[in-house]
Specification:
By secondary structure, the chain is of the alpha+beta class. The protein has two domains: 5-229, Rossmann fold, CATH 3.40.50; 239-359, RNA polymerase II/Efflux pump adaptor protein, barrel-sandwich hybrid domain (OB fold (Dihydrolipoamide Acetyltransferase, E2P)), CATH 2.40.50.100. The protein has helices at 45-53, 95-105, 110-123, 139-151, 169-186, 197-203, 221-226, 231-236; strands spanning 5-16, 19-30, 34-38, 60-65, 68-69, 80-83, 157-161, 189-194, 206-211, 214-219, 241-250, 254-259, 264-268, 278-283, 289-290, 299-310, 315-321, 324-331, 345-350, 356-359. The strands form four sheets. The protein has a six-stranded mixed sheet, sandwiched between helices. Strand 16 (299-310) and strand 17 (315-321) form a beta hairpin. Helix 2 (95-105) crosses helix 3 (110-123). It starts with a strand and ends with a strand.
């Protein structure tokens, strides 16, 4: 992936009357990357996308595309492709005509239009369906056409606003992989809006997490998952167990924390913390261990099994731990005795490195 910046938001704010939906946004989008804007409804992610597309205007700040401010440039002159959830295909046109439309609007030569339409159909594996109309295609096929139409004029950036939201789960997962493969093949910059964490983590080079109009963190999926910088990111991205506590001791390598329920924990030093600081602690369910596996852990406690659910590739345990009556553990194997049953008392543990810490 090239390291240069294709798009930059500089101190961008968007307000509707007294409601601010995007707050002081500073974000760089790198050339050739797949960036997902992730957040719940109303977090500002779609507004961020629409301002780049030219369908909305910033209240203040500026947006640059290829180094040039784009305020005042109409959408059709921004060299940006857009894919919506409802596909927005022309129903009276054939698939080939749909793909040709943006090329004709740019007054390309007929031979070049034919070449690009043929290439677009090949990219999305619909070569045999060029003369059909959208109503004759499945939802997945229509989505492929919308993608091809957004790519066919070789835009600087392709914007995708929850394009897979109308598809069923199996088709959506298939399309995720196909879209990621298409991104690898074309190397075009893609900005993708979604509220689906799994979708963002699966497809993206980086994920930008939005909440209440603010960009809280923008990182590679693994960094986002392993090193959340706020309570919202820790709780929104993936599943987490939350504990609240106070720092009672620190040194250069370790931190001692006492939870509000009285548990003493050892964590790896991550932040500049001092005794008396209030913190929130997070432990991923798959990084907590039970039974014999917990024996070597830095943090070990006795817990009671509330329920045990076999889910095929793993068993999900809900445990009652002091101050945490719904502590979740995911473990994919157990000894010959099998997983513990509801009512059993078990040893629960995790390593100091597995704890994620954010300030309260």
């Amino acid at each position: 992936m090239a390291g240069d910046v294709v798009t930059r938001y500089e101190n961008v704010m968007k307000a509707y009357g007294g409601l601010t939906v995007v707050k002081n946004l500073n974000l760089e989008i790198k050339r050739g990357e797949f960036l997902s804007l992730l957040g719940p409804s109303g977090s500002g992610k779609t507004t961020t996308l629409m301002m780049l597309a030219g369908l909305q205007s910033p209240t203040s700040g500026r947006i640059l595309l290829e180094g040039t401010p784009i305020e005042g440039i109409p959408p059709h002159r921004r060299n940006i492709g857009v894919v919506f959830q409802n596909y927005a295909l022309f129903p009276h046109m054939t698939i080939s005509e749909n793909l040709a439309y943006p090329l004709k609007a740019r007054r390309m030569a007929k031979d070049e239009i034919r070449r690009r339409v043929r290439r677009g159909l090949e990219m999305v594996k619909l070569e045999a369906l060029g003369e059909r109309r959208p109503a004759e295609l499945s939802g997945g096929q229509q989505q492929r056409v919308a993608l091809a139409r957004a790519l066919v004029f070789e835009p600087s950036v392709v914007l995708l606003d929850e394009p897979l939201g109308a598809l069923d789960r199996q088709l959506r997962e298939t399309m995720q992989l196909e879209l990621k493969q298409l991104h690898r093949e074309t190397s075009v910059t893609m900005v993708y809006v979604t509220h689906d964490q799994g979708e963002a983590m699966t497809m993206s080079d980086r994920v930008a997490v939005f909440h209440e109009g603010e960009l809280l963190q923008c990182d590679a999926p693994k960094t986002l998952y392993d090193e959340p910088r706020s309570a919202f990111v820790a709780e929104f991205v993936g599943e987490n167990n939350r504990l609240a506590g106070t720092v009672v001791g620190t040194d250069t390598q370790w931190i001692k924390i006492r939870t509000d329920a009285g548990l003493l924990l050892t964590a790896r030093s991550q932040l500049d913390l001092r005794a008396g600081d209030a913190v929130l602690l997070y432990i991923r369910p798959e990084r907590a261990l039970v039974g014999a596996a917990a024996a070597a852990c830095d943090n070990r406690y006795e817990a009671r099994v509330v329920d045990s659910i076999f889910l095929g590739d793993h068993t999900r345990l809900r445990l009652d731990l002091p101050g945490q009556p719904n502590f979740t553990v995911k473990q994919n194997f157990f000894a010959d005795s099998g997983p513990p049953a509801a009512g059993d008392k078990v040893q629960l543990g995790w390593s100091a490195q597995a704890l994620q810490i954010v300030t309260a």
